[in-house]
Amino acid sequence: MSTDAVVVGSGPNGLAAAITLAQRGLSVTVLEGHDEIGGGTRTSELTVPGVLHDMCSAIHPFGVGSPYLRSLPLADHGLVWRWPEIDLAHPLDDGTAAVMLRSIDETATGLGADGDRWRGVFGPLARQYDDLAPEVLGPVAHLPRRPVLLGRFGLRAALPADVLARRFATEAARALFAGCAAHICRPLDRPSTAAVGTMLIAAGHRHGWPVAEGGSRAITDALASLLRSMGGRVETGVQVRSVADLPDARLMLFDTTPTAFADIAGDRLPPRRARSLRRWRYGVAAYKIDLAVRGGVPWTAEPCRRAGTVHVGGTFEEIADAEAEAARGVLPARPFVLVGQQYLADPTRSAGDVHPVWAYAHVPHAYAGDATDLVLDQIERFAPGLRERIVGQHVTGPADFAAYNPNYVGGDIAAGTNTVRQLLVRPRPTLDPYATGMPGAFLCSSSTPPGAGVHGMCGHRAALRALQDR
């Protein structure tokens, strides 16, 4: 088989890398070890026939707002975005819920006394999100085109989340921010833990938090279709354990973790570079429960019944405690739980009145126990009677995630912990983060800048870097 470039892995980053190369006239072959493409964007019937569950990624504010994905004609290849009535709700014990809508003004109105503060913190970034995204969704070390805007984001992003939360006086606003900040999967009193939450909120107020019609697999199906239309090839069921398993190609891009690449490269990688890549560290794990629920989740707070995403964890302090415990290796008694109700935006995922509910908690890295009751108890805290409506259930623990996708080491679905060091110099200390030290070989996974998320920017930027060596 003759090809100019080979890409290992068919997740969004691998496919984005392949398309970027194909756009420049290269012949490209993508190799996928699984029988199905998609990495973290697969969708399956896990519980009840006809009920579609996203296997990992589910809600896509970074996807719909991705500078690269937005440049592609993915709608022509079947990708349709759908938005729920309410993007995000965060229930509290008094029966109310904080609500984030695409409109920042309507969100601010709902936050009462904190409305002006919310608008002041996130409004400027949301209004200029399309200029901000190309600056943030890439290597930290770069020459910015919008230095003032990037600096404004940096002043917020560098803060510990608990410091930024002090700008809000009400429990509702603090909790709403906490749930977004907790996506960074680190203790919320650490520097830079405000970064992901700030970016998610800005993206939400600019583009919303949509889902892909038919499941997240529709994103990679569209990418693969586009690639094939450009002459690219995708081969599944191909295990790559060493460079010897690859066809001859001038360029090789790896949608893998740094440690997996070091294993594949073997003695072709300089020892010092191999040691550097093997220092990559992984973080807390996901413990996921997919439910088939007749009639939907009986949330006490009515806005949660209309929200595509529900963050379950109570107050800022409760979420911060749970995240700190998981990072210390302790299973939280009340874990932070992310709940997806994608069917509210995309009814094609349901079978009659039986709906898919997607939920996962942050648990310690490589946790091997059973956290099912803890997760369900936490949801029932705000939705009493949930268990009576469950007609199907599927559990994916950390070991299952690692088996499902080798990039999810120990159940870490971010493919690397977001410490300050690994945010700033991922995957190793260098100004050339996609190069590996092996001629013609580049990393393009979410372990490279800008990190996790279905945006394709890691793959796109890695491919642009590889083209410089062509």
UniProtKB/TrEMBL annotation:
Gene3D superfamilies tied to this protein: FAD/NAD(P)-binding domain
SUPFAM superfamilies: FAD/NAD(P)-binding domain
Domain of life, per lineage: Bacteria
Database matches in InterPro entries: FAD/NAD-bd_sf
UniProt xrefs under Pfam families: NAD_binding_8
Name by which UniProt lists this protein: NAD(P)/FAD-dependent oxidoreductase
Organism of this sequence: Nocardioides endophyticus
